[in-house]
Specification:
Layout (H helix, E strand, L loop, with lengths): L6 E3 L5 E9 L6 E5 L15 E3 L24 E7 L4 E6 L15 E6 L4 E10 L2 E4 L4 H7 L5 E6 L2 E2 L19 E9 L3 H14 L3 E6 L6 H12 L3 E5 L6 H11 L4 E6 L4 E4 L29 E11 L13 H4 L2 E2 L4 E8 L9 E2 L2 E2 L5 E6 L5 E4 L5 H6 L44 E2 L2 H10 E4 L2 E4 L5
Parallel strand pairs: 12-13, 12-15, 13-14, 17-22, 17-23
Antiparallel strand pairs: 1-2, 1-4, 2-3, 5-6, 6-9, 7-8, 7-10, 8-9, 10-11, 15-19, 16-23, 17-19, 18-24, 20-21, 25-26
Helix pairs in contact: 2-3
Length: 467
């Protein structure tokens, strides 16, 4: 079956092409997006569509396997699962009230494993945000479910939450590659123009592997990744993660999935660059620079174990830029606010609490581990948060965190996640170019020029600029 021959059939037989977007990590199922037909967009209620191989009438479709409703993301849904040696982790939207930080007791919940005919029920051991940990079915129970695909769902009291997640027992006798000491994971959506600078910079400073959670990018992400891996031999893995506003769940998935391949994981966004004033006299970057921020010995007494390194941020403003600077954000944005803001983290994956709870790029740790705050003279994160208006405006289209309201949603006007004095509409303030500018900070710009600047026939360029 070709992915370009699938259609979304809505009410009244209105149709639109089903756009193939990727393959889900747990089930290996193909993922499609359905655009709402123009003649239905003014309706108050639009029913979930049907996938069909026929654009005229899905009842005439020759592929019976496609004749099932497409779930709406606006309702509750089990959307992914991951198996560990100890348990099954289920990712579920709508069971807990994330915006109120209210988690249901595991005793209210059950995990259901079904082949469509028979069902096995196991207990839920942990309930936090959109992450639920369940016991594995026994080998006898799995054998009873046969070789068919086993769907896994969450039962809340007497109701079962709809599921597109499937159970994949953990493969035995896997040969794991040698662990990378320091990896970096982040969620990306249409950030390809920023990726080369961020990856090249941090790879030269000591990131051994990058793990990108692709949140539905449509700007040639894989082409950029292929070029980085081919030209620079950088280790990059892309995980298809299409679910809207699930950054925290994606980080939880990253933390548990990468536990066997990475020791430490850095969680920053692609507009955030780690910088230490202690590096300015170095003639070139080295792979030990970021690792120097980690505790040298993690095998000390439990009360002294460092499980998380927290680095605070300076927020940079538009710096009078009108468009994205072709030399990169480190070169174009040099004016920032004076005050240090929220921190971003480098986390010891084995130290993360079994709940996998995380907020704003930091995790809850197991008992016996603590977080270490890095002082600004040792390192900061340059957060190029408020860029040229054309770039910043694009952020109005989506926010990835489950805890952060969309820009146009008129709630929590005083939240730190809001842009001060901007309101709820993407209307450029007259003084946007001068905002958030209290300190001229050229430190990282000059250091990056020294480390990554090239002299070409066209003048001075940065190594990450496309040829």
């Amino acid at each position: 079956m070709h992915t370009d021959s699938i259609y979304c059939v809505f009410q009244s037989n209105s149709t639109s092409p089903a756009k193939f977007t990727g393959v889900l990590p747990s089930s290996r199922s193909k993922f499609f997006k359905c655009s709402i037909p123009n003649n239905l967009r003014d309706l108050k209620s639009i029913h979930p569509p049907i996938l069909s191989t026929s654009p005229e009438d899905y009842y005439l479709s020759s592929d019976e396997s496609l004749k099932e409703k497409v779930f709406s993301w606006n309702s509750s849904m089990c959307y992914d699962s991951f198996s560990t040696e100890e348990d099954v982790i289920l990712f579920v939207k709508g069971a807990n009230k994330n915006h109120l930080a209210i988690n249901r007791s595991p005793t209210e919940l059950k995990c259901l494993f079904s082949n469509g005919v028979n069902t096995v029920i196991t207990s839920v051991t942990s309930s936090s945000q959109e992450v639920f940990r369940c016991l594995h079915p026994s080998e006898t129970e799995i054998h009873g479910l046969g070789d068919e695909k086993i769907r896994v769902a969450l039962q809340l009291n007497d109701s079962v939450i709809p599921s597109v997640a499937y159970y994949r027992p953990l493969a035995r006798n896997l040969i794991h590659p040698e662990k990378k000491q320091l990896c970096a994971s982040t969620m990306v959506h249409n950030v390809s123009k920023f990726l080369r600078e961020w990856v090249i910079f941090h790879s030269r400073l000591g990131i051994d592997k990058f793990v990108f959670y692709d949140n539905g990018s449509e700007d040639g992400l894989q082409d950029v990744v292929n070029k980085l891996t081919g030209d620079y031999n950088i280790d990059i893995e892309v995980i298809f993660w299409p679910w809207p506003k699930t950054q925290e769940a994606g980080f939880s998935h990253s933390a548990i999935r990468s536990r066997e391949s990475c020791t430490w994981m850095m969680y920053t966004d692609v507009d955030e660059f780690v910088f230490s004033p202690k590096w300015v006299n170095s003639l070139e970057p080295s792979s030990g620079m970021l690792k120097s921020l980690l505790p040298i010995n993690i095998s000390t007494l439990p009360s002294q174990k460092i499980g998380q390194v927290m680095i605070f941020c300076y927020e940079f403003g538009p710096s009078d830029q009108k468009v994205h600077p072709v030399e990169g954000v480190t070169q174009g944005y040099t004016c920032r606010s004076r005050k240090l803001n929220r921190h971003k983290s480098i986390v010891l994956l084995d130290a993360i609490d079994t709940s996998l709870f995380n907020v704003i790029h930091h995790f809850e740790l197991k008992d016996g581990y603590q977080s270490k705050k890095v002082i600004s003279r040792d390192a900061v994160v340059n957060h190029y948060k408020y860029q040229a208006w054309s770039e910043f405006q694009a952020k109005f289209k989506r926010r990835v965190s489950a805890y952060v309201a969309d820009w146009t949603d008129p709630v929590n006007p005083m939240s730190k996640d809001r842009t001060p004095d901007l309101g709820f509409e993407p209307v450029e303030p007259k003084d946007w170019g001068e905002r958030f500018c209290e300190v001229q900070d050229m430190g990282l710009k000059m250091l990056a020029q020294k480390w990554f600047g090239l002299v070409s026939s066209e003048g001075h360029i940065m190594v990450w600029q496309d040829a």
